[in-house]
Amino acid sequence: MPMWAQAAFWGAVAGSALLVGAALGYEADIPRRVIAGVMAFGAGVLISALAFDLMDEAFASGGFDATSIGFIAGAVIYTVATQIVNRQGAKRRKRSDSQPSESEHPGSGLALAIGALIDGIPESVAIGVSMIHGGTVSTVAVAAVFLSNVPEGLSSAAGMRSAGRSRLYVFGVWGAIAAISAVASLLGYSIFSGFSPDVIAATVAVAAGAILSMLADTMMPEAFEEAHEWVGIITVCGFLAAFVLTKLSGA
Prior knowledge:
Blueprint: H1 3-27, H2 32-90, H3 108-129, H4 131-134, H5 139-162, H6 167-192, H7 197-227, H8 231-249
Helix pairs in contact: 1-3, 1-5, 1-6, 2-3, 2-5, 2-7, 2-8, 3-5, 3-6, 3-7, 5-6, 5-8
């Protein structure tokens, strides 16, 4: 299979977890504390993947300057983009409750979809870019994104259901984002494979900065709001799971 096709495949695999989570969140009556706990675990997984996979790869390729610039740029880009969609009604897009309905905030449905897309693209691009040097996908990156996407889809779909959004809308949104995740991973590999190591390093760091900003802005607040007594240990367990996977895959 050509490398570009492999990049699209692994992006689709990671993105498909959004549909799995959405199905659980919309169809099953899962307690909010359970959803929050799963969110905390997913956040720990992503934090570990950022520290021991993405940022390490960026530093090895481009050193401190490219990595630092990219990391800060990713945080700035994400923050500006998310502030725009938040003003349109997407501020609580990962919350399992309290999402605005269309009647309460006209246009919030589209804002929720765009906000979810902003959250997902950096992860998918990181998967594609991770394939450039080694010629194989980063197992840790795919596993981390997959494990974090399940609670992300679960929590958001539960919130969309509470806001009265239809099944067609919910699964249409997450199905489209899963498909775009495959395209973003493909583009991450295809576009950046011809660039210099510094540019590749900065791109990986941009994705890492955006992901970390997303965790602090959306996933961790959702987890803490409902499971604050246990969120610390659950997040640590997620971190440890990804850390072990990183070391085993590098053995």
